[in-house]
């Protein structure tokens, strides 16, 4: 699994296309896939368990993956696979329990030398309120910030080549020992602050660079949640959005080359995609953590089967969490629906929980959301009300509009009786979960 962190669907398709000729020419390409969550923890946990965030528990409020739920890595290890995670994101490690089942977790920031160390430390401290508070504590004096600062290295320099080289060494060693391998790779180049060059730099020059840096500060700290209004101008937000597209265009050829090695050279099954998207101002939201917009949830997704060439396209809405069932289906351990073999059975549901931004989140942002994609529309549930909007396009994201009070949206969906029952149970369970954590 090659996952580009935070990568939006329109960052991939909005320029000259995916820029991965081998991947596109030899994969099942899902054009309407969405993550189950809106940031790394719930979205990755859903891919690792096949469950929605309210089921696996790794959400913005509780943070911890339910220990009773076996992970993809645990199931594959039980089938004889050597399991390895090579990551540039601390959120996929033991901090939230996403290391479970991996024989090895490689934190790439520990294996690459820092570039421009002083700038690196300054930028990480400015961008992370939690670290700024520690500066004034004894933790700073005792040197306990070293891990936090070191992990922030991936914000300011490319590590994609280091991750791929580490993966090659792991595969070579396991091949020598005759071990089948499961690799999960997390790439941070498309994550904030979006790598437009090997070492951090703004896209603009002069005053444009200043406003870009200020915009990045407000974006990562989500200051609009405390202010009630977005302090970043539309022009600057568009520039921040373009940073991710540029970052993708830089790494896409490297991903394509690496995947060709795995698929063609090693006859491996390869998944290429994103854990979640990023929200660059759609409907007033920015960054991630608590949105159910297509900007934050619609993701690119490609599936390359071993020994199979040629392209196939799946246009029905699917959930990236059902990669879990698809991968287990391949190893003879069918659990849950397979997004590859039966995409119509995949329930495209997205969840978000309100985010406590350093205790300053305004009451108007304190709500949880569930979104269902069905019958050519998106149906969003918030505070006991339904809202609807068509899916986004490359031209933009339509606003959600309130559905008439008392409307039973689930009953009106074009779905079988059994599917309606399942969706109604999903809504009921999410609302009970939402009440419990609020």
SSE inventory with pairings:
Blueprint: E1 2-4, H1 9-13, H2 21-25, E2 28-30, E3 33-34, H3 40-49, H4 53-56, H5 72-78, E4 82-87, E5 104-107, H6 117-127, H7 129-135, H8 138-141, H9 146-151, H10 153-156, H11 160-176, E6 181-187, H12 207-221, H13 224-227, H14 234-265, E7 270-273, E8 279-280, E9 286-287, H15 294-297, E10 301-304, E11 312-314, E12 318-319, H16 323-330, E13 349-352, E14 369-374, E15 377-382, E16 385-389, E17 401-402, H17 409-412, H18 417-437
Parallel strand pairs: 1-6, 1-7, 2-11, 3-12, 4-5, 4-6
Antiparallel strand pairs: 2-10, 7-10, 8-9, 13-14, 14-15, 15-16, 16-17
Number of DSSP E strands? 17
Mean pLDDT: 91
Distance between the termini: 34 Å
Residue windows where pLDDT falls under 50 for at least 5 positions: 138-145
The dominant shape is: globular
The fourth-level CATH homologous superfamily of one domain is Alkaline Phosphatase, subunit A
**Multimerization status:** single chain
How much of the residues is beta strand, in percent? 5-15%
**Biggest sheet descriptor:** 8 strands, mixed
The rounded Rg comes to 21 Å
- Structural class, by secondary structure, is alpha/beta
CATH architecture of one domain: 3-Layer(aba) Sandwich
Count of runs of 4 or more consecutive helical residues:
18
Helix content: 25-40%
- Briefly note the CATH topology name of one domain: Alkaline Phosphatase, subunit A
């Amino acid at each position: 699994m090659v996952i580009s962190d935070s990568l939006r669907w329109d960052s991939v398709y909005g320029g000259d296309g995916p820029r991965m000729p081998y991947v596109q020419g030899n994969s099942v390409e899902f054009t309407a896939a969405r993550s189950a969550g809106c940031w790394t923890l719930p979205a990755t946990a859903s891919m690792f368990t096949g469950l929605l965030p309210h089921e696996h528990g790794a959400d913005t409020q509780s943070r911890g993956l339910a220990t009773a739920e076996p992970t993809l890595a645990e199931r594959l290890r039980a089938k004889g696979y050597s399991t390895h995670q090579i990551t540039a994101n601390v959120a996929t490690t033991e901090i939230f329990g996403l290391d479970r089942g991996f024989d090895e977790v490689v934190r790439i920031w520990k294996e690459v030398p820092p570039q421009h160390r002083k700038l690196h430390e300054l930028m990480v401290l400015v961008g992370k309120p939690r670290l700024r508070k520690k500066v004034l504590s004894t933790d700073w004096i005792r040197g306990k910030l070293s891990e936090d600062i070191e992990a922030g290295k991936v914000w300011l320099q490319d590590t994609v080549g280091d991750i791929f080289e580490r993966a090659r060494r792991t595969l070579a060693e396991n091949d020598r020992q005759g071990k089948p391998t499961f690799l999960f790779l997390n790439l941070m180049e498309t994550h904030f602050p979006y790598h437009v060059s090997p070492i951090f730099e703004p896209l603009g020059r002069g005053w444009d660079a200043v406003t870009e840096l200020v915009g990045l500060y407000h974006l990562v700290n989500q200051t609009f949640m405390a202010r009630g209004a977005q302090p970043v101008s539309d022009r600057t937000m568009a520039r921040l959005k373009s940073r991710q597209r540029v970052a993708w265009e830089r790494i896409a050829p490297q991903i394509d080359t690496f995947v060709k090695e795995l698929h063609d050279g090693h006859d491996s099954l390869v998944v290429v995609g994103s854990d979640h998207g990023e929200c660059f101002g759609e409907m007033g939201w920015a960054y991630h953590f608590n949105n159910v917009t297509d900007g934050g949830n619609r993701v690119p997704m490609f599936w390359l089967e071993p020994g199979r060439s040629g392209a196939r396209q799946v246009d029905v809405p699917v959930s990236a969490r059902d990669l879990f069932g698809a991968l287990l289906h391949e190893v003879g351990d069918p659990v849950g629906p397979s997004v590859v073999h039966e995409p119509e059975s995949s329930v495209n549901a997205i969840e978000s929980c309100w985010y406590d931004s350093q205790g300053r989140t305004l009451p108007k942002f304190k709500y949880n959301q569930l979104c269902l994609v069905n019958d050519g529309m998106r149906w969003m549930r918030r505070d006991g009300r339904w809202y609807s909007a068509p899916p986004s396009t490359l031209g933009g994201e339509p606003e959600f509009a309130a559905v008439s009070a008392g409307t039973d949206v689930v009953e009106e969906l074009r779905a079988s009786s059994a599917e309606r029952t399942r969706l109604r149970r999903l809504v009921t369970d999410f609302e009970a979960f939402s009440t419990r954590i609020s």
